[in-house]
Specification:
Length: 1297
């Protein structure tokens, strides 16, 4: 470690006078020799630490030692002259004097024999603020250290102690005239990390010509004579200690504030649900551990809750009953196993299950056809699927800007940024002051897109961009048929996505916009009858019950300055409340929080920052500006780069609400809402489409006391919300009324009697609503946002178990549930556990642990390192190998694919902690893959005496599946027994096929052609049998089920390939064997090769697998046209040209006026190609994969199921691990007496008395009867099962039906 006085002396060009350094080394050498002689040893004996590196520190540099025995006496005499009378150094005085602790290192005996001049070293282990700290509060050790220091310095045990003595240059008259400040210590490795200085002396090149960087880091400069001098002006004006690359600071050493009962002080900044949950968890955990501590919550507003805010200002009826209006979060999304839902139940807060069915309304209250609504929703989902597949399959390369300078990853990352700037009159507006009239109504400054830094460049682009690319790439001809209504329906679906994230789809990452969906809680989505504020009140009551000594809070306390690396004196904690003496972090005032106006400062051991991401964005924006504001949140030292980078590049959206209260509920009409409990209607008129949905709040939250008050809520998100926040209340209400007037033109609309409008962007204590991921950001950024820091940097980067001081909580710090209230709550609980872990030195042991670094941080630290796996050498993330993960251990960093690392024999993954990854990489460097002949192979065959070794991907190329066959790998030569045990049908690589077969066998086993369309030959293996097929030959096979294996890492892996070849027939067209496509006409049954069927004019890609031969094709087409339902409201004048910004122009006409919708799906006018006239406009085409089923399959899937089944019912529970796991059962339809019954065909529970059995007739699923709404057909049953992980199934067993 470079100690504090060393950094001070660096400003005067020397760490230590060379004479002082020689003196101390000489003294320690003589004392060591004297000590060894007393123990009967010779001075030539070597120490066990002789191998310590000789480049420890310039301040502790080497020195030649003379063996003059009299020097010790002389040095003692010299030191006594400069030391005060020992009688004046009482223990009280010693407590206030810094103590230095040294380790003495002697050269080895062999070195001394070879050379007359020996080299010895002293290593500064630590500098303590007083003797108590140096002794660890051990009375005996304390007295020994005092005696050693009072004597001028001596050994206590194996360490040398002395009072800290400043160099002579700093005690001279000249030095006293120079103002200097003590600086925090730092790790030498951290200092040398980016400065590229010689390892033997961190500042030895100060006299060189290229030292501007080093000088500026130390706040030094060269004067006119070329001498290096202390840059006092820079030191005063810059809060950052540039010498600490990880974030040191220019802070004064201060004594501790008095503590009551030696308790810890923990501060929490931000009184939202994250901050309150953190306080609750801290109080509970600290009490259970017997640790005396007080938690203090600081909230800037006059209320707690943050973005959870229930307004009770609108009163209804004669008795003035209030309706809770949720100005912030409204829902609990998924109540199963949700801790927030459990908290509400404990607080006796009632759930309200509102219907989520949306009635789509056009002008004049005309309801949109439900079939069209469903089809447009499916079409939009197909668009997203196509775009996501294309984006993920594109090379993960670092993209440069286009030739015209346009950055395809440039997006808006902070919608409220325009409100963080000073207004024209220098005023700030909070959400509580949302009656905006005056100059802001004409002030429409909008946020601008910004690019991403080089270390974040990738192939990821916006949802908007990728959908446009998908339309152009796939020539999605359905758009040429869409009318205005369908266009507006698609536009509505885009707004629905934008509402969920508070951001426009032009700013959402195509790869990661819904990355949290797989972690969502199951169960109903509910609202709270008493409102979210009741949850906040309950949490506060439970905290106050703990007492003032455990919890305290202050409101109206906007935080200005946050310090988290103060040089503070320390005190030992002592015993806990259980009487045990635990090893805990010492008490200190390392952290402090100063109120915005500077009138109050509070001191803490630890801090938790639970402010919104928008506030953090504003803090770092103003901290980097030249003009700094004292009334803004700031951090000292500045947050490390990793934290600032994530805060800057993660998006923060904006969602606002407009509540309108009317005299009468003019919208509640039977002809509008089919069901009595429906309370949501969508706006597809094209008028003010940003008011895309209205919610009947009064109907949902109404009760016997207040009835169902006529209150509507409109939602506005993204850039449109920014525009609306610039409007006055009157203008915004008029805009909503204009929209309602278009929808309900036949109704008499009275002006609202009351309204309530949110403006979360202008609220400077929020600066937005919730988090989203734009292009350039990934789900790994949440780890960067949540990682704690101290004065040396981010915990993700710092080695060892350093004590972290500043922790982070909030919905923006959780990768599992971002933008959710329960996510914020869970993040607060996680931050509390991190504080307790740090306080108790419970940081997990890092022995054999490899730390995961988020990819942006790795790329920033290693800008020239190619993004390729250190094992398989493939670039970028892969479907089979998984995403690239960066691992760090010590100074070593590597990039490895997730699956390549996880399936290495020595690698262990326990509780998301990885062990031995870098060890595996090191081992793989010397091992060559049996298959591809490249190094990095780590997976060896388990069979005895087999020395073949493979990469992960090469092992799967041979037909092994690690997710199915386990991590214990057998090569293709030694798995015969395993192959016979299962009916294997695995895809293998062409290269592996050729290694086992001659090149002449590279032909399709079905059509016998060597090449084909796109040369799409793929190889399969079953036992020792292998063959090649064209993908289309097996994909469109109808003779057996050859459906594609879902979630296969290999891709293009189909079922029953060998079975299809076995049952293939002679082709009607060419006469050769291998025909697997059979005419779907029941009276025909002729078989064809796929290529022969295509040569007859059949287009499988457009018409699907249901093939008809030429003799029956016209008959099938006529039957289809007769049964086809005409589309509603098709615009006969619809243009066939589909431009990329097709959603931006949907519904552009209403009464002849063009409605300008801002930049949805706008990539600069890219156009999809015209539909080829040769395709035939009347032929079928669809994005839906359901067309690949045969017609009989369609009829069976959608046939009505019978709810009438007689017999004794039996309840059976069926579970699966997650929604991504398949159900271990198969269902079929048993049709008898004109009725259709849902029957279990296959079940893994066969033979178990309490499980499902083949033949069981299913009556109900999770309380809903089969045949009723939601489970009307087999198609709806399967759709329902996709969302469930646990089923209670009622069945009738051994029944005729």
């Amino acid at each position: 470690m470079v100690d504090q006085s060393a950094l001070v002396e660096a400003s005067r060009l020397w760490f230590q006078d060379q004479s002082d350094s020689l003196e101390l080394n000489r003294r320690m050498k003589l004392l060591m020799e004297q000590k060894e002689k007393e123990n009967g040893k010779t001075s030539s004996g070597a120490t066990s630490n002789s191998t310590i590196a000789k480049d420890v520190d310039g301040y502790n540099g080497t020195a030649k030692i003379s063996h003059d025995a009299s020097a010790l006496e002389n040095s003692d005499h010299k030191r006594a002259k400069t030391t005060k009378d020992p009688s004046s150094r009482l223990p009280q005085a010693a407590n206030n004097q810094a103590v230095q602790k040294f380790k003495y290192v002697s050269s080895s005996q062999s070195d001394q024999l070879q050379s007359k001049s020996t080299s010895d070293y002293r290593l500064l282990v630590a500098t303590f603020c007083d003797v108590n700290e140096a002794s660890g509060c051990d009375p005996t050790q304390r007295e020994n250290i005092i005696a050693a220091c009072e004597g001028g310095g001596n050994f206590v045990g194996s360490y040398y102690y002395q009072y800290e003595v400043l160099p002579a240059t700093l005690t001279s008259q000249e030095a006293r005239s120079i103002e200097y400040e003590m600086r925090t210590s730092m790790g030498l490795h951290s200092f040398l990390q980016d400065t590229k200085l010689p390892p033997f002396h961190p500042l030895s090149n100060l006299q060189s010509g290229s030292n501007h960087k080093v000088l500026s880091m130390l706040n030094m400069k060269r004067d006119s004579s070329g001498n290096v001098v202390w840059d006092q002006q820079n030191a005063i004006g810059v809060e950052n200690d540039a010498a600490l690359l990880a974030g040191g600071t220019r802070l004064q050493s201060v004594p501790m504030q008095p503590r009551v009962g030696r308790r810890y002080e923990i501060g929490v900044i931000g009184g939202g649900i994250a901050g309150l949950a953190c306080c609750q968890e801290l109080v509970t955990l600290l009490r259970s551990e017997g640790i005396n501590a007080r938690v203090t919550l600081m909230e800037a507003r006059s209320r707690l809750g943050g973005r959870l805010w229930t307004d009770q200002s609108l009163s209804i009826g004669e008795h003035k009953k209030c309706v809770p209006l949720e100005l912030g979060a409204s829902w609990i999304h998924g109540i199963d196993h949700n801790p927030l839902a459990a908290l509400c139940k404990r607080a006796n807060i009632d759930f309200v299950t509102a219907s989520e069915e949306v009635t789509m309304l056009d002008a004049n209250g005309e309801r949109v056809d439900s079939t069209m609504d469903k089809n447009m929703g499916q079409l939009f989902d197909d668009l997203l699927d196509h775009a996501a597949e294309d984006c993920w399959s594109s090379p993960a390369v670092v993209m440069e800007s286009a030739g015209n300078g346009h950055d395809e990853q440039a997006t808006i990352k902070w919608y409220s940024s325009v409100f963080a700037e000073k207004t024209r009159e220098g005023e700030e507006v909070t959400c509580e002051e949302n009656r905006m009239n005056g100059f802001l109504s004409g002030y429409t400054k909008l946020p601008q897109p910004s690019g991403v830094p080089l270390h974040r460049k990738s192939s990821d682009r916006s949802v908007d961009f990728e959908i446009g690319q998908a339309v152009a790439k796939h020539k999605l001809r359905d758009f040429s048929k869409l009318g205005d209504m369908e266009h507006r329906m698609l536009m509505w679906n885009t707004k629905n996505v934008e509402y969920a994230l508070g951001a426009n789809i032009s700013d959402l990452s195509m790869k990661f916009w819904d990355s949290d969906e797989r972690h969502a809680f199951e169960g109903e989505h509910v609202m709270l009858q008493q409102g979210y504020s009741a949850v906040i009140d309950h949490m506060l009551d439970s905290l106050q019950a703990a007492g003032k000594n455990s919890f305290d809070y202050v409101t109206d306390y906007p935080v200005g300055k946050v310090e988290y690396a103060r040089k503070s004196a320390t005190q030992p904690y002592g015993h806990d409340t259980f009487g045990s003496n635990k090893k805990l972090v010492e008490l200190s005032d390392t952290c402090s929080v100063t109120k915005e106006d500077g009138t109050d400062t509070k001191y803490f051991d630890f801090l938790v920052c639970a402010v919104p991401l928008g506030v953090l964005k504003e803090a770092i924006t103003h901290s980097s500006a030249e003009e700094k504001s004292d009334c803004r949140l700031s951090f000292q030292p500045p947050l490390p780069f990793s934290k600032i980078d994530a805060i800057t590049n993660v998006g923060f959206g904006l969602l606002d609400k407009v509540f309108l209260q009317f005299e009468t509920p003019f919208w509640r009409k039977d002809e509008v809402f089919e069901d009595a409990d429906q309370c949501i209607f969508g706006n597809v008129t094209g008028k003010h489409s940003h008011h895309y949905m209205f919610f009947d709040v009064g109907k949902t939250l109404g009760n016997s006391e207040n009835g169902s008050p006529p209150i509507l809520m409109s939602l506005i998100s993204g850039i449109e919300a920014v525009k609306c926040e610039h409007l006055s209340d009157d203008a915004l209400v008029a805009e909503v009324m204009d929209t309602l007037g278009t929808i309900f033109s036949d109704a008499k609309l009275d002006f609202p009697v009351a309204h309530r409008i949110t403006r979360w962007g202008k609220d400077r204590f929020s600066r937005g609503s919730y988090t989203f991921l734009p292009p350039g950001a990934t789900d790994q950024d949440f780890n960067l946002l949540q990682s704690p820091v101290n004065g040396n940097g981010d915990s993700l980067w710092i080695e060892g178990n350093e004590t972290m001081r500043l922790f982070f909580a909030g919905e923006h710090t959780t990768a599992l549930h971002p933008s959710m209230a329960h996510g914020a709550m869970l993040s607060g609980m996680r931050a509390a556990e991190e504080v307790l872990s740090t306080l108790q030195f419970k940081s997990s042991s890092e022995k054999d642990m490899d730390r995961i670094l988020p990819e942006p941080l790795f790329r920033h630290k290693n800008p020239t390192t190619p993004l390729q796996c250190s094992l398989c050498h493939k670039h970028g993330g892969q479907v089979r190998e998984g995403r690239l993960v960066s691992f760090k251990r010590g100074a070593r960093q590597v990039l490895v694919h997730n699956n390549c690392a996880e399936n290495c024999p020595e690698v262990e993954v326990v509780d998301s902690k990885w062990k031995h990854v870098i060890k595996a990489v090191n081992r793989g460097k010397a091992l060559t893959c049996t298959m591809c002949k490249m190094n990095g192979a780590t997976i060896g065959c388990t069979s005895d005496n087999c020395f073949r070794i493979f990469h992960f991907s090469c092992a799967e190329d041979t037909g092994w599946r690690f997710d199915r066959d386990s991590k214990v790998f057998y090569c293709d030569l030694h798995r015969s027994g395993l192959s016979e045990a299962r009916d294997q049908n695995d895809r293998i690589s062409i290269s592996f096929f050729l290694s086992k077969n001659p090149a002449s066998s590279l032909i399709c086993s079905f059509c016998r052609a060597t090449t084909g369309k796109d040369d799409d030959l793929i190889a399969y293996q079953s036992g020792f049998r292998q063959m090649c097929v064209h993908e289309r030959c097996i994909k469109y096979t109808t003779i057996v089920d050859t459906s594609e294996v879902e979630h296969s890492r290999m891709g293009k892996e189909y079922r029953n390939v060998f079975r299809a070849l076995e049952v293939s027939q002679a082709c009607r067209h060419c006469g050769d064997h291998g025909a697997t496509v059979v005419c779907a006409d029941p009276a025909c049954g002729l078989a064809y090769h796929v290529c022969c069927a295509e040569s007859s004019g059949w287009n499988f890609q457009k018409r699907g697998k249901s093939f008809f031969c030429t003799a029956h094709r016209d008959q099938a087409s006529r039957a289809k046209r007769e049964n086809e339902m005409p589309k509603d409201k098709m615009d006969p004048d619809s243009k066939g040209l589909v431009s990329h910004n097709l959603l931006a122009q949907f519904g552009a006409k209403l009464g002849g006026d063009h409605v300008n919708i801002a930049s949805n799906l706008d990539i600069g006018g890219t156009k999809a190609p015209l539909v080829d006239s040769r395709d035939g406009g009347s032929e079928e085409g669809s994005l839906s994969s359901e067309d690949t089923m045969e017609e009989s399959d369609h009829l069976a899937m959608k046939a009505a199921l019978s709810p009438d089944v007689a017999g004794e019912k039996l309840s059976v529970q069926v579970d699966r691990a997650s929604t991504s796991e398949p159900w271990d059962l198969s269902l079929c339809i048993d049709s008898r007496d004109m009725l259709n019954y849902l029957v279990v065909a296959v079940s893994s529970d066969k033979g178990k008395p309490h499980g499902l059995q083949p033949g069981d007739v299913i009556v109900s699923i999770n309380g809903t009867n089969v045949g009723s709404e939601g489970l009307y057909s087999l198609h709806e049953v399967l759709h329902h099962l996709q969302r469930e992980v646990s089923l209670i199934v009622e069945v009738i067993r051994n029944n005729k039906h």
